[in-house]
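Example 9 (inverse folding). The structure is encoded as follows.
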């Protein structure tokens, strides 16, 4: 037991009595008690019993540079001493905000030269929704208000972003979705591709966007929002035909493209942004997570010259948050980006550790229970199946085998997530080859154990 906190059982009791966890069955968790994480360094988190857990999920897909970097702690302390808080509402700005905005404009592809700062990915997507609709109002097309999204997408869990998310379980609770949003099907060939080849299926799913625009009327549709690779939906990598067709369709109908890069951004796919990996030209881009490597909450909407010009010329945009461009968060994000650039974290990962992981990950298809293995950069998934050739689902309730495997991973000191019967990883971008070996070894052991239990 470590010294600087209460005994584990006491902390679990306090947690159960007072702490409501996100996306959690409260009673089920409280009955067994949460695992209490007390410290972290590099790619490992340590629990209150001193167990070291390899974090195959980089927290929640966010700790891109790894845990516990001293330079970030120092940048935070310096900024708190200098200017702990000021807002940017009333014709003021401050050095961290303007430096970070300029840095993001430099890093972002195309003409995404403007940033509206938010506190998280969810409220960034709320900003995007309001900005896209406001844009069309200012352009004299106030009827262009519908935002199109996809089933099984995840864009956050506020009223707005939770509605954009195509998660049916979320829509069942709390009055979601709000009006003015519609969804098309996802490009998940493994689960939904049927007899089609991946290429045919990618085109078919992309063309659902065109059909939806024509059905609703192009004069009614403001924007299409999508993650370059669906993360929380199970790391669904679209077939190669998908994104070029989507770009063709949004161009043809003049629909704004909002790329939600909350997970894909800041190196995860092997380029700074997922849209570069897939050749997309978004009008607005959602960023959060890797922007600060999760050291503090910060999000943003990167906005193209085309959209920013109209919004800036349109009088007051009546939108913003107390913590938009929080100076401490901005200073930390700047330091995070400095580390990523100076240490060439994205380049090194893309040239060395990502291809190394890819070879090992794809070899998992030799496991009797693993159907497809998908990986781009440092985000990857495997589909668990009782019959690979038929791409079959388990007869038991979908997700049970995935859940069992996730629990075996956790017991074996590996954080790996499950989405139904898909297992996913997104480790810190700085994971070494030796740590990748450890991740794969623990994953295989957990899959073997999971298969035994599921029999
Ligand atoms: N968009 C995507 C693609 C995400 O994966 C997430 C969170 O996982 C969000 C938005 C919401 O971000 P946040 O949890 O910071 O509100």
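The amino acid assigned to each position is listed next.
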């Amino acid at each position: 037991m470590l010294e600087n906190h209460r005994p584990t059982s006491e902390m679990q009791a306090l947690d159960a009595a007072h702490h409501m966890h996100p996306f959690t069955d409260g009673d089920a968790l409280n009955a067994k008690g949460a695992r209490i994480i007390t410290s972290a360094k590099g790619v490992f988190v340590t629990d209150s019993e001193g167990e070291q857990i390899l974090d195959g999920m980089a927290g929640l897909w966010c700790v891109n540079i790894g845990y516990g970097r001293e330079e970030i702690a120092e940048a935070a302390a310096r900024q708190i001493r200098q200017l702990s808080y000021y807002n940017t509402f009333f014709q003021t700005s401050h050095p961290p905000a303007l430096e970070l905005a300029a840095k993001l404009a430099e890093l972002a592809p195309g003409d995404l030269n403007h940033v509206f700062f938010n506190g998280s990915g969810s409220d960034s997507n709320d900003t995007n929704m309001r900005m896209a609709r406001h844009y069309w109002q200012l352009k004299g097309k106030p009827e262009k208000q519908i935002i199109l999204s996809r089933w099984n997408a995840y864009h956050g869990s506020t009223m707005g972003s939770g509605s954009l998310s195509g998660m049916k379980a979320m829509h069942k609770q709390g009055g979601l979705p709000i009006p003015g949003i519609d969804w098309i099907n996802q490009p998940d060939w493994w689960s939904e591709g049927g007899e089609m080849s991946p290429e045919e299926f990618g085109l078919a799913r992309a063309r659902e966007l065109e059909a939806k625009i024509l059905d609703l009327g192009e004069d009614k549709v403001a924007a299409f929002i999508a993650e370059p690779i669906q993360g929380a939906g199970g790391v669904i990598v679209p077939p190669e035909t998908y994104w070029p067709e989507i770009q063709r369709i949004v161009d043809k109908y003049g629909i704004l493209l909002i790329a939600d890069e909350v997970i894909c951004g800041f190196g995860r796919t092997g380029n700074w942004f997922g849209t570069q990996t897939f050749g997309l030209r978004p009008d607005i881009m959602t960023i959060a997570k890797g922007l600060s490597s999760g050291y503090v909450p910060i999000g943003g909407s990167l906005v193209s010259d085309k959209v920013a010009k109209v919004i800036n010329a349109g009088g007051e945009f009546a939108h913003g948050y107390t913590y938009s461009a929080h100076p401490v968060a901005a200073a930390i994000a700047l330091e995070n980006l400095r580390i990523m650039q100076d240490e060439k974290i994205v380049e090194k990962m893309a040239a060395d550790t990502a291809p190394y992981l890819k070879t090992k990950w794809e070899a998992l298809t030799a496991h009797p229970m693993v159907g497809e293995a998908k990986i781009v950069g440092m985000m990857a998934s495997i589909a668990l199946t009782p019959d690979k050739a038929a791409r079959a689902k388990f007869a038991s309730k979908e997700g049970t085998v995935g859940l069992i495997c996730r629990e075996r991973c956790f017991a074996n000191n590996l954080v790996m997530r499950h989405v139904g019967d898909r297992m996913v990883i997104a480790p810190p971008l700085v994971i070494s080859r030796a740590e990748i070996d450890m991740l794969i070894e623990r994953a295989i052991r957990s899959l073997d154990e999971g298969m035994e239990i599921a029999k």
